[in-house]
Amino acid sequence: MGDRGGEEKVPDADQVSVLLPGTESESQVDRNSKNFDRSVTVMRSNLSTGPREKWGSKMQFMMSCIASAVGLGNVWRFPAVCARNGGAAFLVPYFIVLLVIARPLFVLELALGQFTSKGSVRCWDMSPVLTGIGVAGAVSSVLLSTFYIMLLAWALIYAVISFVSMCTGEVVWGAQPGPYFGGEVLRGISFDSPAAHDIHAWVPICHLVLALLVAWLLIWVTMVFGVEASGKVAYVTAMAPYVVLITLLIVGCCLPGAKVGIYYFVVPDLNKILIAEKSNHYKLYQFRFQAVGQCFFSLGIGFGGCIMFASFNEFNNNIIKDVMIIGLVDTFTSVLAGFSLLSILGFQATQTYEKKKALMSAPIPITTEYDKLVAMCKETRGTSEDDLKICQLEMLVNEGGAGVAFIQYPAAMYQVNEQWGKHLGGFLGLLFFLMLVLLAVGSANGFVGTTVTILADRFKDWKRSNIVSGVCMGSFFLGLIYTNGVGSEWFDVVDQHGVTAVVYVLSFLEVVAVLCCYGLKNFCDDLEFMRGGKKVGWYLRITWVTLPFLMVIIFITWLINYKPGKTWTGPIKAIAWTLTALCLSIIPGTAIYKYVQFIKDPWRRNVPLRPFAILQAIADPSPKWGPKERDIRTAWKEFKAERDPSYHICQRIFGICSRKSGEVRPDRRLSFATNAATTRPSESGGGLASGIGTPLAASAGSMAPPSQRGSQAPVVQERKSKT
Question: Which portions of the chain have biased composition (kind: Basic and acidic residues) (predicted)?
């Protein structure tokens, strides 16, 4: 985005020096105090007046959010989870979680990004002590992007194989897609296998490395040309999958046995969500917990992608309406994918059942173990044929996840190819895997874009194209761990310990930061200002208050249901929990860094060097918090000056603990009123401080040394007397 012609060029904020009130020159400041030997340097992120790159239109933002939300999980995870957990009955806990947890968190993250026009790290100027939330989210996002792009590489491999099958009329994976996927494509070796101790098991496999390289090149092409170009790519990645899903649904409904799969998907089984089996007391909670995981990872909450997308919005965009639309589209896509996938899996289950039924009239070989055969007959006694078909379908659905996409779906395509035409199976396979490629690209743009935006906000002199190239190259090398024989085993390790556990904790801390460190009332006031005076409804207020308790319950439930991989050895388990600890240790580590940084900073606004006083200072919003654009920031300061500066929980606790006996608590929240009064152009007579609009004038009195406060001292004294 170039500079607008005809406007006066504003000096770079990093080079702007503003003299404190009561001083005549910069040299006088240096002479009066050796601790204040420099002028106040206004941070670029605080007073940046340069235009931030924006979406070309609101539709680009919507398409990008939809492309990011609608991912691989909607196609292969939701249908399997829904079918395993009671069919349509699963939608009851799903919608409850969506309305009570996912949607309020989604609004909160979009509001943070749009209000500050910053990425998922810089937006935590709201409470600098919790900046680690954004950093940990970025690390988790990088980990997620590494194995997510590997899934994209698998889809690319199968798209090429499907194209070859369509041209030749012979399905490459044959009648045994499972062994082909694990043996030929992945050449998988489990952690507990003796072969895992061989050095060759850790050598990257050539075709997987090549596929991973092509996948990252796709991501690079879609992001290197800027935000507006990425928004245009989102039209394709968001809309094209629906064409494929509808095509697959039409074809699937024409196949024999499709009604068996659709029946299994639609008809509710309330027993699975209301009654727990005696053999597993936690199974009931596990079913309900599946709804939580589906909502979280479908909408991309906790990674920072939502904040990143919203940061390129116009300031007054209606995010409440956007969240409703995105949530409905995401759910509709999941249900549509369920109909499409289960209709085809129903066909496969029916065909497999018919083959097994034909074997019942065949001669029994003398080598058959009759005890096992009799036991199987007893298990199926009194069971109808339709129930046996459902039983076979359950076996297919229980594969779950990538197994549905790369094993069960190719098996169905083989049967289609055998019965309906030699080229149809390859064609349907090509459509399906191209759809997976588009979905993966759309979602990956959110994960990778989070890291790119964080670096672009931090290093403003770096070209965005160079940042994109560096992130893609670095992530490619990190992803090489998934290209060797044991690579597929690392998926669950990183997914459970580097992503799932971390995101639940980050989401909890996000809400705590808003409620306790900044204050729910302050946050709602900011949303009201951003929405042009429209107040935040009680639905969001109530759900935000209850979210911390619900997030604690969710994390405890995750711990209860946690099961390490069956093939994980002792060292692998240690590595897994170390990964979780490292990701979460970023949060207290960043808090300690902010604490030490504040102590060493001579411009600490005259805060006494007592632990709780410093904690209060770094828990409160920094001077850089607020809208980024100058005019909007000035209007926001005046708007906040008219509001009741009520204290929030952390400020009360830290304020009480940090005061000595009989000490008067300074009302730091009233600095908004001082800001508005001291920075209006009509009263200040123009100049740089009045034009920029707020930050320095608000805190100049408290930042100056005692001998130089000048005219600011009466203002502070007046605030104390009012207290």
Answer: 1-12
